[in-house]
Amino acid sequence: MSEDAFEGLVAAALDSLPPELGTMVDNLVVQVRDRHPAGLLGLYEGIPLTHREQYGGLAMPDRVTIFRLALLDRCASSAELEREVRITVVHEVAHHFGIDDARLAELGWA
Known about the structure:
Shape: globular
Oligomer: single chain
Number of helices: 5
């Protein structure tokens, strides 16, 4: 799958988030990279909204990175890839909202 087509899957996953959540996203960049050295599918880096009182003034944006080749390696079909991209995007954006891995597992997004 081309990089552009994969980025389209990530954009579609972001667009599928409920609008009320989209309006709450603050200072977040979503990017696609090929691989993480530890084999992660996605990574959130930043200060969750639940801890923003410590955020400061001119802070760099939080980052969600989705790792394209890791997801492509994991999925056997385009339908499976679309599902895994959505799960990964939701999982990492949830960290932006302060939801930890244990709660995501309870909700079925881990």
